[in-house]
Amino acid sequence: MSSRRVTLLGGSGFVGSQLTYRLAEKFDEVVVLTRRAQRVRTLRTMSNVRAQEVNVHDADALAAVLAGSDTVINLIGILNEGGSQSKGSFSSAHSGLTAKVLSACAAGNVKHYLHMSALNADAEKGSSEYLRTKGEAEQLVRNHQGSTTWTIFQPSIIFGEHDAFFNRFAGLLRALPVFPLAVPDAKMAPVFVGDVCNVMIKSIDDPKAAGATIQLCGPEEYTLRELVQYTADTAGLSRIIIGLPDWAARLQGRVMEFVPGKPFSRDNYLSLQTPSVCSGDCARQPTSLDAVVPRYLGNRDWAGRLQKRRAAARR
């Protein structure tokens, strides 16, 4: 694919860095927008990857850097707010930024816009502010008038080396011999970051992807308790996991909002009330947890422990 530029917002994050490497193999130029170019210095080892310093919330600056791009990919999203009226709020990070990006795409004659959302995003029925503002952003994309074609992606939990899910739980489990788990029966279908990147890249030149909303789930569904237990087993940790009743889960969300890093919040609790699984007719992505997670969480003899777990489950 010659003479085409792909520009990423959120390209320095977990999904973005993986996607950047893959895009660099197919496109002449990949531009990663960032507030500080130093943050993406490892990506700049590829000759056709360029870090561009810009405040993405500055509409004029954003329009200037997106002009000339063939494809724009917006991966920006937050799981917890940093301020009610600032760029750290759900509304600003999701719907507010999306409006600016779409306007910049129209002004710059961008051909393709890829939008990262979430399963269960719904402006009216979303169970949390996170999901409602994600839904508002989706509405803006679907209602956008202009020549830019769009595709929306709705993933479940995304896993892979350096992910924020299994790595975070592994860290918490190492610190707590008894682990109090909120919403233990919440359902998820973890999807591998490599599969997510492949689907996104293929969509750029697929006419069928224009105007489509693509759900992204892995091959199996799990409860949150099963995933936390899987994390403990894979990391070689013997831990007692206690599922909290609803009142205690709500209280945990309220208290943990004041812990540095905000590992859990009331809005997280509300998001977990809706199963993060794909619809029945959704094509599942192929990569399983067992194929990837033990490589970055596993302790000695993880393969042997995995086989024992499968035997215990009569697989």
Write the SSE topology.
Blueprint (H helix, E strand, L loop, with lengths): L4 E5 L4 H11 L4 E6 L14 E5 L5 H8 L4 E4 L15 H18 L4 E5 L12 H14 L6 E7 L2 E2 L6 H10 L2 E4 L5 E2 L2 E2 H12 L7 E5 L5 E2 H11 L5 E4 L2 H11 L9 H6 L21 H5 L4 H11 L3
Parallel strand pairs: 1-2, 1-4, 2-3, 4-5, 5-6, 6-11, 7-10, 8-13
Antiparallel strand pairs: 9-12
Describe the structure.
By secondary structure, the chain is of the alpha/beta class. Helices cover 37% and strands 17% of the residues. The chain contains eleven helices and 13 strands. It has helices spanning 14-24, 59-66, 90-107, 129-142, 166-175, 193-204, 224-234, 246-256, 266-271, 293-297, 302-312, and strands at 5-9, 29-34, 49-53, 71-74, 112-116, 149-155, 158-159, 178-181, 187-188, 191-192, 212-216, 222-223, 240-243. The strands form four sheets. It has a seven-stranded parallel β-sheet, sandwiched between helices. The protein has a two-stranded parallel sheet with strand order 7-10. The protein has a two-stranded parallel ribbon with strand order 8-13. Helix 1 (14-24) links the parallel strand 1 (5-9) and strand 2 (29-34). The chain is globular, with a radius of gyration of 20 Å. It starts with a strand and ends with a helix. Mean pLDDT is 91; it is low at 300-304.
